[in-house]
Amino acid sequence: MEEFDALMANDTWTLVPRPAGTNLVTGKWIYRHKFHADGSLDRYKARWVLRGFTQRPGIDYDETFSPVVKPATVRTVLSLALSQDWPIHQLDVKNAFLHGTLSETVYCSQPTGFVDSAHPSHVCKLNKSFYGLKQAPRAWYSRFASHLLTLGFVEAKSDTSLFIYRRGTDTVYLLLYVDDIVLTASSPGLLRSTITALQSEFAMKDLGPLHHFLGIAVHRRSDGLFLSQHQYLLDVLERAGMSDCKPCSTPVDTHAKLSAMNGDLLSDATHYRSLTGALQYLTFTRPDISYAVQQVCLHMHATRDSHLSAVKRILRYLRGTSHHGLLLRPSSPSELVVYTDADWAGCPDTRKSTSGYAVFLGGNLISWSSKRQTTVSCSSAEAEYRAVANGVAETAWLRQLLQELHRPLTKSTLVYCDNVSAVYLSTNPVQHQRTKHVEIDLHFVRERVAVGDVRVLHVPTTSQFADIFTKGLPTSVFTEFRSSLNICSFDVLTAGGDRNISLLRGIFLSLVFSARLSPARTPCLSRLVWIDEIGTP
User: Fold this and answer.
1) CB atoms near residue 422 (< 10 Å)
2) What is the dihedral of CA 269, 270, 271, 273, to 10 degrees?
3) 177-230 per-position pLDDT tens digit
4) Torsional class of 364: left (φ above 0), alpha (ψ -120 to 50), beta (otherwise)
5) Is the dihedral of CA 480, 485, 490, 494 positive or negative?
6) Which pairs from 483-487 meet CB under 8 Å and 24+ separation?
7) DSSP character at residue 304
Protein backbone atom coordinates (compact mmCIF):
# COMPACT_ATOMS: atom_id res chain seq x y z
CA MET A 1 0.00 0.00 0.00
CA GLU A 2 1.26 3.49 -0.92
CA GLU A 3 0.66 4.92 2.54
CA PHE A 4 2.55 2.16 4.31
CA ASP A 5 5.44 2.42 1.83
CA ALA A 6 5.68 6.15 2.60
CA LEU A 7 5.89 5.38 6.32
CA MET A 8 8.71 2.92 5.72
CA ALA A 9 10.60 5.25 3.36
CA ASN A 10 10.41 8.05 5.92
CA ASP A 11 11.86 5.87 8.70
CA THR A 12 8.87 6.77 10.83
CA TRP A 13 9.46 4.11 13.51
CA THR A 14 11.74 1.38 14.74
CA LEU A 15 10.39 -2.00 15.81
CA VAL A 16 11.47 -2.78 19.39
CA PRO A 17 10.30 -5.08 22.19
CA ARG A 18 7.74 -3.34 24.35
CA PRO A 19 9.42 -1.91 27.48
CA ALA A 20 7.74 -2.80 30.74
CA GLY A 21 5.37 -0.18 32.15
CA THR A 22 5.23 1.98 29.01
CA ASN A 23 2.04 3.46 27.58
CA LEU A 24 1.10 2.05 24.17
CA VAL A 25 -0.73 4.41 21.80
CA THR A 26 -3.15 2.55 19.55
CA GLY A 27 -4.22 3.48 16.03
CA LYS A 28 -6.68 2.77 13.23
CA TRP A 29 -6.94 3.06 9.46
CA ILE A 30 -8.94 6.04 8.22
CA TYR A 31 -10.43 5.86 4.72
CA ARG A 32 -11.41 9.05 2.93
CA HIS A 33 -12.55 10.28 -0.45
CA LYS A 34 -10.47 13.16 -1.79
CA PHE A 35 -12.35 15.54 -4.06
CA HIS A 36 -11.41 18.16 -6.63
CA ALA A 37 -12.51 21.80 -6.18
CA ASP A 38 -15.63 21.14 -8.30
CA GLY A 39 -16.72 18.25 -6.08
CA SER A 40 -15.66 15.43 -8.42
CA LEU A 41 -13.79 12.44 -6.99
CA ASP A 42 -10.00 12.73 -7.06
CA ARG A 43 -8.84 9.54 -5.33
CA TYR A 44 -9.39 7.14 -2.48
CA LYS A 45 -7.03 7.68 0.43
CA ALA A 46 -6.10 5.50 3.39
CA ARG A 47 -4.10 6.75 6.37
CA TRP A 48 -2.89 5.11 9.56
CA VAL A 49 -3.85 7.49 12.39
CA LEU A 50 -2.96 7.14 16.05
CA ARG A 51 -5.59 7.57 18.73
CA GLY A 52 -4.37 10.68 20.49
CA PHE A 53 -6.79 10.20 23.37
CA THR A 54 -4.73 7.18 24.49
CA GLN A 55 -1.71 9.43 25.13
CA ARG A 56 -0.84 10.51 28.66
CA PRO A 57 0.08 14.15 29.36
CA GLY A 58 3.60 14.71 30.59
CA ILE A 59 4.67 11.28 29.32
CA ASP A 60 3.65 11.00 25.66
CA TYR A 61 3.25 14.71 24.98
CA ASP A 62 3.80 18.17 26.46
CA GLU A 63 3.17 21.25 24.26
CA THR A 64 0.48 20.81 21.61
CA PHE A 65 -0.47 24.26 20.32
CA SER A 66 0.30 24.95 16.66
CA PRO A 67 -0.37 28.37 15.09
CA VAL A 68 -2.37 28.70 11.89
CA VAL A 69 -2.44 31.70 9.58
CA LYS A 70 -5.17 34.26 10.28
CA PRO A 71 -7.86 34.83 7.60
CA ALA A 72 -7.12 38.57 7.50
CA THR A 73 -3.45 37.78 6.81
CA VAL A 74 -4.42 35.57 3.87
CA ARG A 75 -6.61 38.27 2.34
CA THR A 76 -3.95 40.94 2.93
CA VAL A 77 -1.20 38.94 1.23
CA LEU A 78 -3.46 38.03 -1.70
CA SER A 79 -4.44 41.69 -2.09
CA LEU A 80 -0.80 42.80 -2.10
CA ALA A 81 0.23 40.10 -4.58
CA LEU A 82 -2.69 40.97 -6.81
CA SER A 83 -1.91 44.69 -6.78
CA GLN A 84 1.67 43.95 -7.87
CA ASP A 85 0.74 41.19 -10.36
CA TRP A 86 2.84 38.57 -8.57
CA PRO A 87 2.41 34.85 -9.33
CA ILE A 88 0.60 32.96 -6.55
CA HIS A 89 1.10 29.20 -6.18
CA GLN A 90 -0.10 26.57 -3.77
CA LEU A 91 1.99 23.66 -2.51
CA ASP A 92 1.03 20.26 -1.18
CA VAL A 93 3.30 18.55 1.37
CA LYS A 94 3.12 14.77 1.21
CA ASN A 95 2.68 13.24 4.68
CA ALA A 96 3.54 16.58 6.28
CA PHE A 97 3.24 15.47 9.90
CA LEU A 98 5.77 12.68 9.33
CA HIS A 99 8.46 15.35 8.86
CA GLY A 100 8.12 16.57 12.44
CA THR A 101 10.70 15.59 15.05
CA LEU A 102 9.44 14.33 18.40
CA SER A 103 11.02 15.48 21.65
CA GLU A 104 9.16 12.77 23.60
CA THR A 105 9.51 8.99 23.48
CA VAL A 106 6.30 7.51 22.11
CA TYR A 107 5.42 3.84 21.49
CA CYS A 108 2.53 2.74 19.30
CA SER A 109 1.07 -0.51 18.02
CA GLN A 110 1.92 -1.89 14.58
CA PRO A 111 -0.55 -0.99 11.80
CA THR A 112 -3.41 -3.44 11.40
CA GLY A 113 -2.79 -5.70 8.41
CA PHE A 114 0.93 -4.88 8.33
CA VAL A 115 2.19 -6.61 11.46
CA ASP A 116 5.74 -7.88 11.07
CA SER A 117 5.47 -11.68 10.89
CA ALA A 118 8.96 -12.10 12.39
CA HIS A 119 8.21 -9.83 15.39
CA PRO A 120 4.43 -9.83 15.94
CA SER A 121 4.74 -8.77 19.59
CA HIS A 122 7.07 -5.83 18.94
CA VAL A 123 5.90 -2.24 19.12
CA CYS A 124 6.81 0.85 17.09
CA LYS A 125 9.11 3.36 18.73
CA LEU A 126 8.39 6.56 16.82
CA ASN A 127 11.29 8.42 15.26
CA LYS A 128 9.08 11.05 13.61
CA SER A 129 5.83 12.78 14.37
CA PHE A 130 2.67 10.98 13.34
CA TYR A 131 -0.92 11.73 12.39
CA GLY A 132 -3.23 11.67 15.38
CA LEU A 133 -0.61 12.54 17.98
CA LYS A 134 -1.55 15.58 20.02
CA GLN A 135 1.83 17.21 19.41
CA ALA A 136 2.01 16.33 15.68
CA PRO A 137 0.93 19.77 14.31
CA ARG A 138 3.38 21.57 16.60
CA ALA A 139 6.25 19.24 15.72
CA TRP A 140 5.62 19.74 11.99
CA TYR A 141 5.39 23.52 12.37
CA SER A 142 8.65 23.68 14.33
CA ARG A 143 10.44 21.53 11.76
CA PHE A 144 9.15 23.53 8.78
CA ALA A 145 9.73 26.94 10.39
CA SER A 146 13.29 26.00 11.33
CA HIS A 147 14.09 25.09 7.73
CA LEU A 148 12.58 28.33 6.41
CA LEU A 149 14.82 30.33 8.74
CA THR A 150 17.88 28.61 7.22
CA LEU A 151 16.69 29.74 3.77
CA GLY A 152 16.66 33.38 4.87
CA PHE A 153 12.97 33.73 5.72
CA VAL A 154 11.82 35.74 8.72
CA GLU A 155 8.87 34.76 10.87
CA ALA A 156 6.39 37.62 11.12
CA LYS A 157 5.63 38.80 14.64
CA SER A 158 2.10 39.84 13.67
CA ASP A 159 1.26 36.33 12.46
CA THR A 160 3.69 33.51 13.16
CA SER A 161 2.34 31.45 10.25
CA LEU A 162 3.51 34.11 7.78
CA PHE A 163 7.11 33.92 6.60
CA ILE A 164 8.82 36.70 4.65
CA TYR A 165 11.95 36.63 2.51
CA ARG A 166 13.50 39.97 1.53
CA ARG A 167 16.76 40.54 -0.31
CA GLY A 168 16.97 43.88 -2.11
CA THR A 169 13.96 44.02 -4.40
CA ASP A 170 13.35 40.25 -4.18
CA THR A 171 10.40 39.44 -1.93
CA VAL A 172 8.63 36.18 -1.07
CA TYR A 173 5.56 35.67 1.13
CA LEU A 174 4.74 32.18 2.45
CA LEU A 175 1.49 31.37 4.27
CA LEU A 176 1.26 28.16 6.29
CA TYR A 177 -2.02 26.64 7.49
CA VAL A 178 -1.03 23.30 9.08
CA ASP A 179 0.17 21.52 5.91
CA ASP A 180 -1.39 23.78 3.27
CA ILE A 181 0.97 26.37 1.80
CA VAL A 182 0.37 29.48 -0.32
CA LEU A 183 3.47 31.01 -1.87
CA THR A 184 3.87 34.26 -3.80
CA ALA A 185 7.02 36.03 -5.00
CA SER A 186 8.02 39.20 -6.79
CA SER A 187 9.11 37.27 -9.90
CA PRO A 188 8.41 33.84 -11.47
CA GLY A 189 12.10 32.94 -11.29
CA LEU A 190 12.28 33.68 -7.56
CA LEU A 191 9.10 31.68 -7.00
CA ARG A 192 10.54 28.68 -8.85
CA SER A 193 13.85 28.79 -6.97
CA THR A 194 12.00 28.97 -3.63
CA ILE A 195 9.87 25.94 -4.52
CA THR A 196 12.99 24.02 -5.55
CA ALA A 197 14.66 24.83 -2.24
CA LEU A 198 11.63 23.55 -0.32
CA GLN A 199 11.37 20.40 -2.43
CA SER A 200 15.00 19.55 -1.70
CA GLU A 201 14.08 19.18 1.99
CA PHE A 202 10.46 18.00 1.96
CA ALA A 203 8.36 15.76 -0.28
CA MET A 204 6.37 18.60 -1.79
CA LYS A 205 4.30 19.04 -4.93
CA ASP A 206 3.71 22.30 -6.74
CA LEU A 207 0.00 22.39 -7.55
CA GLY A 208 0.40 25.40 -9.83
CA PRO A 209 -1.43 28.73 -9.59
CA LEU A 210 -3.62 29.11 -6.51
CA HIS A 211 -7.02 27.59 -7.26
CA HIS A 212 -8.26 25.74 -4.14
CA PHE A 213 -7.10 26.50 -0.61
CA LEU A 214 -8.72 25.31 2.64
CA GLY A 215 -11.97 24.51 0.85
CA ILE A 216 -11.99 27.92 -0.85
CA ALA A 217 -12.12 28.07 -4.64
CA VAL A 218 -9.92 30.82 -6.09
CA HIS A 219 -10.67 32.01 -9.63
CA ARG A 220 -7.97 34.18 -11.19
CA ARG A 221 -9.39 36.68 -13.65
CA SER A 222 -8.08 39.71 -15.49
CA ASP A 223 -10.01 41.92 -13.05
CA GLY A 224 -8.97 40.20 -9.83
CA LEU A 225 -9.36 37.14 -7.62
CA PHE A 226 -12.78 35.70 -6.84
CA LEU A 227 -12.92 33.71 -3.59
CA SER A 228 -15.89 31.43 -3.03
CA GLN A 229 -16.94 28.37 -1.02
CA HIS A 230 -19.64 27.18 -3.40
CA GLN A 231 -18.98 23.45 -3.07
CA TYR A 232 -18.62 23.68 0.71
CA LEU A 233 -21.91 25.58 0.87
CA LEU A 234 -23.68 22.87 -1.14
CA ASP A 235 -22.31 20.23 1.23
CA VAL A 236 -23.67 22.16 4.24
CA LEU A 237 -27.10 22.47 2.60
CA GLU A 238 -27.12 18.75 1.86
CA ARG A 239 -26.14 17.96 5.44
CA ALA A 240 -29.04 20.09 6.65
CA GLY A 241 -31.45 18.47 4.19
CA MET A 242 -32.19 21.86 2.58
CA SER A 243 -30.66 21.46 -0.87
CA ASP A 244 -34.03 22.28 -2.47
CA CYS A 245 -35.31 24.82 0.06
CA LYS A 246 -37.01 28.06 -0.93
CA PRO A 247 -34.48 30.96 -1.00
CA CYS A 248 -34.96 34.22 0.88
CA SER A 249 -33.45 37.66 0.25
CA THR A 250 -31.67 38.33 3.59
CA PRO A 251 -30.05 36.06 6.21
CA VAL A 252 -31.88 37.69 9.15
CA ASP A 253 -35.09 39.67 9.49
CA THR A 254 -35.42 43.22 10.80
CA HIS A 255 -37.64 42.31 13.75
CA ALA A 256 -36.72 41.66 17.39
CA LYS A 257 -33.39 39.95 18.14
CA LEU A 258 -33.10 36.30 19.15
CA SER A 259 -33.88 35.69 22.80
CA ALA A 260 -32.49 32.90 24.93
CA MET A 261 -35.98 32.20 26.33
CA ASN A 262 -38.30 32.17 23.31
CA GLY A 263 -39.40 28.76 22.08
CA ASP A 264 -39.06 25.21 23.33
CA LEU A 265 -35.72 23.60 24.10
CA LEU A 266 -34.47 21.11 21.52
CA SER A 267 -34.12 17.57 22.79
CA ASP A 268 -30.84 17.16 20.89
CA ALA A 269 -28.86 20.23 19.83
CA THR A 270 -26.04 18.26 18.14
CA HIS A 271 -27.34 18.96 14.63
CA TYR A 272 -27.76 22.66 15.44
CA ARG A 273 -24.21 22.97 16.74
CA SER A 274 -22.83 21.12 13.74
CA LEU A 275 -24.57 23.44 11.27
CA THR A 276 -23.63 26.56 13.22
CA GLY A 277 -19.98 25.54 13.27
CA ALA A 278 -20.08 24.91 9.52
CA LEU A 279 -21.60 28.37 8.95
CA GLN A 280 -18.80 29.97 10.97
CA TYR A 281 -16.23 28.69 8.49
CA LEU A 282 -18.36 29.91 5.60
CA THR A 283 -17.89 33.51 6.80
CA PHE A 284 -14.30 33.33 5.46
CA THR A 285 -15.63 34.50 2.08
CA ARG A 286 -19.17 35.53 3.06
CA PRO A 287 -19.06 38.52 5.44
CA ASP A 288 -22.72 39.19 4.59
CA ILE A 289 -23.78 36.37 6.95
CA SER A 290 -21.40 37.29 9.80
CA TYR A 291 -24.05 39.01 11.91
CA ALA A 292 -26.62 36.26 11.44
CA VAL A 293 -24.07 33.56 12.30
CA GLN A 294 -22.89 35.51 15.34
CA GLN A 295 -26.47 35.64 16.62
CA VAL A 296 -27.10 31.89 16.33
CA CYS A 297 -23.70 31.10 17.90
CA LEU A 298 -24.82 32.80 21.12
CA HIS A 299 -27.30 30.00 21.84
CA MET A 300 -25.32 26.78 21.45
CA HIS A 301 -25.52 26.04 25.19
CA ALA A 302 -29.34 26.14 25.37
CA THR A 303 -30.82 25.78 21.90
CA ARG A 304 -34.50 26.37 21.22
CA ASP A 305 -36.64 25.87 18.15
CA SER A 306 -36.59 29.63 17.41
CA HIS A 307 -32.79 29.46 17.14
CA LEU A 308 -33.02 26.51 14.75
CA SER A 309 -35.45 28.54 12.64
CA ALA A 310 -32.85 31.33 12.47
CA VAL A 311 -30.24 28.85 11.22
CA LYS A 312 -32.66 27.61 8.56
CA ARG A 313 -33.24 31.18 7.41
CA ILE A 314 -29.49 31.64 6.93
CA LEU A 315 -29.39 28.43 4.89
CA ARG A 316 -32.34 29.61 2.79
CA TYR A 317 -30.48 32.85 2.07
CA LEU A 318 -27.34 30.93 1.14
CA ARG A 319 -29.37 28.67 -1.13
CA GLY A 320 -30.32 31.70 -3.22
CA THR A 321 -26.80 33.17 -3.20
CA SER A 322 -24.70 30.00 -3.51
CA HIS A 323 -22.58 31.48 -6.31
CA HIS A 324 -21.66 34.59 -4.33
CA GLY A 325 -18.17 35.21 -3.02
CA LEU A 326 -15.60 37.84 -2.16
CA LEU A 327 -13.88 39.77 -4.95
CA LEU A 328 -10.33 41.07 -4.55
CA ARG A 329 -9.28 43.55 -7.23
CA PRO A 330 -5.92 45.12 -8.13
CA SER A 331 -5.82 48.41 -6.22
CA SER A 332 -3.26 50.62 -4.57
CA PRO A 333 -2.72 49.35 -1.00
CA SER A 334 -1.76 52.78 0.27
CA GLU A 335 -4.40 53.33 2.93
CA LEU A 336 -6.65 51.57 5.41
CA VAL A 337 -10.26 52.63 5.74
CA VAL A 338 -12.47 51.31 8.54
CA TYR A 339 -16.22 51.47 9.08
CA THR A 340 -17.37 50.85 12.65
CA ASP A 341 -20.88 50.58 14.03
CA ALA A 342 -22.76 49.37 17.10
CA ASP A 343 -26.33 48.33 17.81
CA TRP A 344 -26.93 49.79 21.26
CA ALA A 345 -28.51 47.43 23.83
CA GLY A 346 -29.61 45.10 21.06
CA CYS A 347 -29.58 41.89 23.08
CA PRO A 348 -33.08 41.43 24.60
CA ASP A 349 -31.74 39.32 27.47
CA THR A 350 -28.56 41.08 28.60
CA ARG A 351 -29.03 44.50 26.93
CA LYS A 352 -25.47 44.28 25.64
CA SER A 353 -24.60 45.94 22.34
CA THR A 354 -23.26 44.39 19.14
CA SER A 355 -20.12 45.83 17.56
CA GLY A 356 -19.10 45.50 13.95
CA TYR A 357 -16.37 46.78 11.67
CA ALA A 358 -15.18 46.44 8.09
CA VAL A 359 -11.58 47.17 7.10
CA PHE A 360 -10.59 48.02 3.52
CA LEU A 361 -7.03 47.96 2.20
CA GLY A 362 -7.20 50.06 -0.92
CA GLY A 363 -10.44 48.89 -2.49
CA ASN A 364 -10.41 45.38 -0.99
CA LEU A 365 -12.22 44.17 2.11
CA ILE A 366 -9.60 42.30 4.16
CA SER A 367 -11.03 42.12 7.68
CA TRP A 368 -14.43 42.31 9.39
CA SER A 369 -16.09 41.43 12.65
CA SER A 370 -19.51 41.06 14.24
CA LYS A 371 -19.31 40.57 17.99
CA ARG A 372 -21.37 41.18 21.10
CA GLN A 373 -19.72 43.59 23.54
CA THR A 374 -18.58 42.18 26.86
CA THR A 375 -20.16 44.90 29.02
CA VAL A 376 -23.42 46.83 29.02
CA SER A 377 -23.09 50.35 27.60
CA CYS A 378 -24.93 53.17 29.32
CA SER A 379 -25.45 55.17 26.12
CA SER A 380 -25.34 54.79 22.38
CA ALA A 381 -22.21 57.00 22.30
CA GLU A 382 -20.42 54.58 24.63
CA ALA A 383 -21.47 51.58 22.54
CA GLU A 384 -20.33 53.27 19.34
CA TYR A 385 -17.05 54.29 20.93
CA ARG A 386 -16.32 50.74 22.02
CA ALA A 387 -16.94 49.70 18.42
CA VAL A 388 -14.45 52.35 17.29
CA ALA A 389 -11.90 50.98 19.78
CA ASN A 390 -12.34 47.47 18.33
CA GLY A 391 -11.80 48.78 14.81
CA VAL A 392 -8.75 50.81 15.82
CA ALA A 393 -7.22 47.77 17.55
CA GLU A 394 -7.61 45.74 14.35
CA THR A 395 -6.02 48.49 12.24
CA ALA A 396 -3.10 48.77 14.66
CA TRP A 397 -2.40 45.07 14.08
CA LEU A 398 -2.84 45.43 10.31
CA ARG A 399 -0.47 48.40 10.16
CA GLN A 400 2.16 46.33 11.94
CA LEU A 401 1.50 43.43 9.54
CA LEU A 402 1.96 45.69 6.51
CA GLN A 403 5.15 47.06 8.03
CA GLU A 404 6.54 43.52 8.26
CA LEU A 405 5.42 42.84 4.70
CA HIS A 406 7.57 45.82 3.64
CA ARG A 407 4.50 47.76 2.54
CA PRO A 408 4.24 50.37 5.34
CA LEU A 409 1.39 52.85 5.31
CA THR A 410 2.33 56.53 5.09
CA LYS A 411 -1.19 57.87 5.58
CA SER A 412 -3.45 57.87 8.60
CA THR A 413 -6.11 55.21 8.90
CA LEU A 414 -9.56 56.68 8.37
CA VAL A 415 -12.14 55.36 10.82
CA TYR A 416 -15.75 56.17 9.95
CA CYS A 417 -18.42 56.25 12.64
CA ASP A 418 -22.03 57.43 12.28
CA ASN A 419 -22.24 58.72 15.87
CA VAL A 420 -21.08 62.33 16.28
CA SER A 421 -20.56 61.97 20.05
CA ALA A 422 -18.21 59.03 19.55
CA VAL A 423 -16.24 61.06 17.00
CA TYR A 424 -15.85 63.91 19.51
CA LEU A 425 -14.77 61.49 22.26
CA SER A 426 -11.86 60.29 20.14
CA THR A 427 -10.16 63.71 20.27
CA ASN A 428 -11.67 65.53 23.28
CA PRO A 429 -9.19 65.35 26.20
CA VAL A 430 -11.86 66.28 28.77
CA GLN A 431 -12.88 63.30 30.94
CA HIS A 432 -16.62 63.46 31.58
CA GLN A 433 -18.38 61.77 34.48
CA ARG A 434 -20.52 59.69 32.14
CA THR A 435 -17.49 58.20 30.34
CA LYS A 436 -15.02 57.62 33.17
CA HIS A 437 -15.70 53.87 33.16
CA VAL A 438 -14.46 53.54 29.55
CA GLU A 439 -11.22 55.35 30.24
CA ILE A 440 -8.94 52.61 28.91
CA ASP A 441 -10.64 52.57 25.50
CA LEU A 442 -10.62 56.37 25.42
CA HIS A 443 -6.88 56.59 26.09
CA PHE A 444 -6.12 53.85 23.54
CA VAL A 445 -7.99 55.52 20.67
CA ARG A 446 -6.87 59.04 21.62
CA GLU A 447 -3.26 57.91 21.64
CA ARG A 448 -3.55 56.53 18.09
CA VAL A 449 -5.26 59.75 17.01
CA ALA A 450 -2.60 61.88 18.70
CA VAL A 451 0.32 60.14 16.97
CA GLY A 452 -1.41 60.47 13.60
CA ASP A 453 -2.06 56.79 12.88
CA VAL A 454 -5.83 57.20 13.04
CA ARG A 455 -8.44 59.82 12.13
CA VAL A 456 -11.98 59.24 13.37
CA LEU A 457 -14.55 60.88 11.09
CA HIS A 458 -18.30 60.98 10.83
CA VAL A 459 -20.17 59.21 8.05
CA PRO A 460 -23.93 59.31 7.38
CA THR A 461 -25.88 56.22 8.37
CA THR A 462 -26.87 55.79 4.73
CA SER A 463 -23.22 55.05 3.91
CA GLN A 464 -22.30 53.12 7.07
CA PHE A 465 -21.40 49.72 5.59
CA ALA A 466 -20.69 48.23 9.02
CA ASP A 467 -24.46 48.28 9.67
CA ILE A 468 -24.56 44.90 7.96
CA PHE A 469 -22.54 43.46 10.89
CA THR A 470 -24.74 44.76 13.71
CA LYS A 471 -28.39 44.35 12.77
CA GLY A 472 -30.90 43.01 10.28
CA LEU A 473 -31.47 45.36 7.33
CA PRO A 474 -34.21 45.81 4.73
CA THR A 475 -33.55 43.97 1.50
CA SER A 476 -32.69 47.05 -0.56
CA VAL A 477 -30.19 48.40 1.98
CA PHE A 478 -28.72 44.95 2.61
CA THR A 479 -28.18 44.32 -1.10
CA GLU A 480 -26.52 47.70 -1.58
CA PHE A 481 -24.17 47.28 1.38
CA ARG A 482 -23.37 43.73 0.28
CA SER A 483 -22.19 45.03 -3.10
CA SER A 484 -20.16 47.76 -1.37
CA LEU A 485 -18.31 45.03 0.54
CA ASN A 486 -17.28 43.48 -2.81
CA ILE A 487 -19.54 40.45 -2.38
CA CYS A 488 -20.95 39.46 -5.73
CA SER A 489 -22.08 36.51 -7.81
CA PHE A 490 -19.55 34.80 -10.05
CA ASP A 491 -22.21 34.53 -12.78
CA VAL A 492 -23.01 38.24 -12.59
CA LEU A 493 -19.31 39.05 -12.42
CA THR A 494 -18.76 37.15 -15.64
CA ALA A 495 -21.57 39.09 -17.28
CA GLY A 496 -20.08 42.36 -16.04
CA GLY A 497 -22.89 43.51 -13.72
CA ASP A 498 -21.38 43.51 -10.25
CA ARG A 499 -17.97 44.12 -11.73
CA ASN A 500 -19.13 47.52 -12.92
CA ILE A 501 -20.57 48.27 -9.49
CA SER A 502 -17.28 47.27 -7.86
CA LEU A 503 -15.30 49.41 -10.30
CA LEU A 504 -17.49 52.42 -9.53
CA ARG A 505 -17.00 51.84 -5.84
CA GLY A 506 -13.25 51.63 -6.43
CA ILE A 507 -13.31 54.97 -8.22
CA PHE A 508 -15.20 56.62 -5.37
CA LEU A 509 -12.87 55.05 -2.80
CA SER A 510 -9.85 56.31 -4.70
CA LEU A 511 -11.33 59.81 -4.68
CA VAL A 512 -11.72 59.63 -0.92
CA PHE A 513 -8.14 58.43 -0.53
CA SER A 514 -6.66 61.07 -2.80
CA ALA A 515 -8.66 63.92 -1.32
CA ARG A 516 -7.98 62.70 2.26
CA LEU A 517 -11.32 64.27 3.16
CA SER A 518 -10.09 67.83 2.90
CA PRO A 519 -12.55 70.63 3.70
CA ALA A 520 -13.58 70.49 0.06
CA ARG A 521 -16.57 68.22 -0.26
CA THR A 522 -15.87 64.64 -1.31
CA PRO A 523 -18.22 61.91 -2.62
CA CYS A 524 -18.88 59.17 -0.08
CA LEU A 525 -18.63 55.83 -1.87
CA SER A 526 -21.62 53.89 -3.19
CA ARG A 527 -24.32 56.41 -2.32
CA LEU A 528 -23.54 59.91 -3.62
CA VAL A 529 -23.98 61.51 -0.21
CA TRP A 530 -21.82 64.57 0.18
CA ILE A 531 -20.02 65.16 3.47
CA ASP A 532 -17.30 67.51 4.67
CA GLU A 533 -14.53 66.86 7.19
CA ILE A 534 -16.68 67.29 10.30
CA GLY A 535 -19.34 65.02 8.85
CA THR A 536 -22.11 67.51 8.10
CA PRO A 537 -24.49 66.10 5.44
Assistant:
1) 26
2) 80
3) 988 899 999 999 999 999 999 999 998 899 999 998 888 999 988 788 999 999
4) beta
5) positive
6) 483/526, 484/525, 484/526, 485/287, 485/288, 485/358, 485/365, 485/368, 486/326, 486/327, 486/328, 486/329, 486/363, 486/364, 486/365, 487/286, 487/287, 487/288, 487/324, 487/325, 487/326, 487/327
7) B
